[in-house]
UniProtKB/TrEMBL annotation:
This is Cupin fold metalloprotein WbuC cupin domain-containing protein. Residues 49-129 form the Cupin fold metalloprotein WbuC cupin domain.
Length: 197
């Protein structure tokens, strides 16, 4: 325990508590006791309810891209990006990679096909989220694509930040210029060893 000292009210506080208070100074200025602050910090739960997911799916259905997201992270610069993405079956997801980060995916509503490709565009692995797989982790730099299998489906994604749009070099050349209908039809049937003609 840190060295002790008396404050103005005659109460004993540790140096550790003072450091903690300084770290969260804005709440302390608002007149919260350390006990109230600690309790509030423990109860600031971020939630995505079933109603939230349904609303997000509704937004995706109205979006020209047929996608909508709800971020749990506060800023696009956050070191870990955490978001729910509603994806309709006809949305276009080009095969791509994230050179700087792994990516974790899990289905919150509906089913998703996740394909991982080798450098030549051959399917290396296939997973069915919401069917026989609960979570996948795509390695940093791994080429991949995701297909929404159901209307109203929502996937949850976690990866390193800060957010960076996918650059042209990180979209697979064999997927460029293809339509959503063409890619999605192939994603639905592609198996390990297959390549898009």
């Amino acid at each position: 325990m840190g060295a002790e000292r008396d404050d103005d009210a005659g109460k004993t506080k540790t140096v550790q508590e003072e450091r903690h208070k300084a770290r969260f100074y804005p709440l302390w200025l608002a007149g919260k006791s350390m006990r109230e602050f600690r309790l509030q910090r423990r109860t600031n739960l971020k939630k995505l309810t079933s109603a939230d997911l349904a609303a997000l799916a509704g937004q995706a259905q109205q979006s020209p891209r047929l996608r909508a997201n709800s971020n749990l992270h506060a800023e696009l610069t956050d070191p870990i990006q955490r978001l729910a993405i509603a994806m309709e079956p006809d949305t276009l997801i080009l095969p791509h990679r994230h050179p700087h980060t792994w990516e974790v995916l899990t289905a919150l509503r509906g089913r998703f096909t996740v394909l991982v490709f080798d450098e030549a565009g051959r399917v290396a692995e296939r997973a069915e989220l919401g069917v026989d797989t609960s979570v996948v982790e795509i390695p940093a730099g791994g080429w991949h694509a995701v297909l929404s299998r159901d209307v109203g489906a929502v996937i949850f994604e976690v990866k390193h930040g800060p957010y960076a749009p996918i650059g042209d070099a990180d979209v697979a050349a064999w997927g460029k210029g293809r339509t959503a209908a063409e890619l999605n039809a192939w994603y639905a049937e592609a198996r390990p060893g297959d390549t898009l003609a």
